[in-house]
Amino acid sequence: MGRRPNGPKMLPSDPPLDKGHIPWFGHAREFGKDPAKFLSKMKQKHGDIFTIRVAGKFITILLDPCSYDAVLWESNSKLDFGKYARILMERMFDVKLPNFEPSDEKAMLRLTLQNKNLSSLTKAMFFNLKTLLLSDQNQQWQEGGLFYLSYSTMLRAGYLTLYGNEEENYDDPSSQDKDRAHSSEVYNEFYKLDRLLMRAARSMLTTVEQKEVARIKKRLWKLLSVERLNCKANKSSWLESYKKHLEELGVDEDMQSRAMLLQLWVTQGNAGPAVFWLLLFLLNHPAAMAAVQGELEKVLGHRGQTMKQMHGISQEILDNTPIFDSVLKEALRLTAAPFITREVLEDASLRLADGREYSLRKGDRLCLFPYLSPQMDADIYEDPEKFKYDRFLNPDGTEKNDFYKRGTRLKHYNLPWGAGINTCIGKFHAINSIKQFVFLLLSCFDLELKHPGSGIPEFDKERYGFGILQPAGGREMFTHLSRKARDTHSMFKCSSSAWRGRRTGEATRL
């Protein structure tokens, strides 16, 4: 049966082992360079479960969505997700929390992001988005990057919503100016760090990069210091609960600032890129844009108010946009690529849905990669690499949730938000925030690609495993943006040809 290097003899119940050709390093280079491509190749070679060696670590990969629940709901005493989380917290953010238990923290914070607190967060996000998006009355065409527009606006508004405003009065122009200036400073520093975080997570930073990361973190820790946050107005219950949690753990103020930066990445690092891909798919697919516009006209057009006059969008409206929901699910299916990781704490067996049973070795790592299956699985989705805005709609316009693999209906057919105890606790707040941003943008602005038909940029392959992907090389998709003369829902009516080719006025750099 062979033998693991410096380890016990292989058992018949072990998953297929692919050690690679380089001692200790194994497949580290291929896995790090393009995880999706490498794991696809391994799946073709070994099937939907196998073990690889990566930099001295043995990682068992499971790519059968019918069997994911066997991992997702296993006891933490056998398959632990906290150990790897603690490793990444320290590598990426220099955070060490005594007696840190991710499951306990999630349970505590979940209450602050859902149920009765969701309404206040949604309303605050709406006001903060308006502050950032609707301050400029200029109706001339402006040129700017779609990724910058999406990421900066979502992160800044999300930051103000969770961490608080500079002053209490949302509507005061001077307060809004302060919020715009401060949130811009936070985003600019955060984005510099974000571009290096994936290399930090893999311990691949050069000496020069390590020094740069240290400088950026120091500036962000100051911006997110306990002293600064204590002076904030309109702080969310999430912030108050998290501060109390850190204090109960006995964390000093310096480490609290570091933890606040970690949470900024956790809570805000994916929504902006998700909006970017969603808007880019809409701009490249006129039929999808027309369908979304028609739905928004239907649910918003009867109110007789402009977006600027509105004080919020009700949860009832946000929950009744099946076309937009399908567009969002499809955009996330194509671009959400997190790993779901567990550390094997004791020798155990893993029983798959088809009855096969495999051994898991203590000290190994177990990893699910839903991006490959179910999300990009041709056995589940027709033309999985293509964007189809109505993929998650039935012919009668209701939500489609019946998808099959080898004749078995899938519980897990799309996992951008994780699953089981890994499910994102901020999912509902994130969805509401994405909807509000897109609704405001399409209500109040005309938006078109500078180069129609330029397609979808390649992914930054370093991002595989860490949430929503980003365009490779920081490539921007430039757009022309113009404030509508009248911000009203009735102005959604716009032909597909206009979206493809309209030009009005001279474009200026944002």
UniProtKB/TrEMBL annotation:
Cofactor (UniProt): heme
Organism: Alligator mississippiensis
EC number: 4.2.1.152, 5.3.99.4
InterPro entries per UniProt: Cyt_P450, Cyt_P450_CYP7A1-type, Cyt_P450_E_grp-IV, Cyt_P450_sf
SUPFAM superfamilies according to UniProt: Cytochrome P450
Subcellular location as annotated: Endoplasmic reticulum membrane
Predominant localisation class: endoplasmic reticulum
Membrane topology: Single-pass membrane protein
UniProt keyword annotations, A-Z: Endoplasmic reticulum, Fatty acid biosynthesis, Fatty acid metabolism, Heme, Iron, Isomerase, Lipid biosynthesis, Lipid metabolism, Lyase, Membrane, Metal-binding, Prostaglandin biosynthesis, Prostaglandin metabolism, Transmembrane, Transmembrane helix
Function: Catalyzes the biosynthesis and metabolism of eicosanoids. Catalyzes the isomerization of prostaglandin H2 to prostacyclin (= prostaglandin I2), a potent mediator of vasodilation and inhibitor of platelet aggregation. Additionally, displays dehydratase activity, toward hydroperoxyeicosatetraenoates (HPETEs), especially toward (15S)-hydroperoxy-(5Z,8Z,11Z,13E)-eicosatetraenoate (15(S)-HPETE).
Residues binding substrate, per UniProt: R91, L97, N270, R365
The protein's name in its UniProt record: Prostacyclin synthase
Family: Belongs to the cytochrome P450 family.
A biological-process GO annotation: prostaglandin biosynthetic process
